[in-house]
Amino acid sequence: MSVTGIICEYDPLHTGHAWLMARAREAGASAVVCAMSGNFTQRGGFAAADKLARAEMAVACGADLVLELPTVWAMSTAERFARGGVEVLTRTGVVTELLFGSESGDMAALTRCADCLDSEDLTAALAAVPEDGRTFAARRQQAVEALLGPADAVLLAIGGFLKGQGPRTVWPKAAQKSGQQVDGLDDVCPFCAPVHRPPVGTPALRHRWRYPADLPVQ
User: Fold this and answer.
1) What is the pTM of this model?
2) Cross-strand partners of 139
3) Fewer CB within 10 Å: N-end or C-end of the chain?
């Protein structure tokens, strides 16, 4: 049985989110489980709607179960946000795959970036980047660019790379993994206008993994 997990905020839930859940169903998922932030978001502010209303929207759009991502993770960095979401989904004992949207749809590039961010080479490359008043994220992107080139490094900028933390969090812990790209579009969200639909061909990436014996949140 295939059970898809989605780490989300749904702040607010729009057609693109519903589209992602629909893609999970079309790809064979028998159930969709969401790990969703509560009344506070990753940016540090209040959510546009309270968590119960957003959870109801998610269920109306295809989710079978919505679990709250604890605030300590929901308001943390992208890495900890993703790790906390994976922890919540893992502890269910039933989720078999992770599904997330990607602006690039390039699984290989996302994998390279994820591996680079966890490599010792990045530490050395980052040390060579001057502390010139830029944010850490900007300096890190320059370091990744030095190692992988600009085409891969730009993935750290688009979408804040929050979605890219999914493979970074899951893959190092996985005993087995595979990726599949799912394309298509249906206007399936009853809550939002069609203007919020993703363009035709927007990719969704699915990743299967086996649960490790333990997945500690660091």
Assistant:
1) 0.70
2) none
3) C
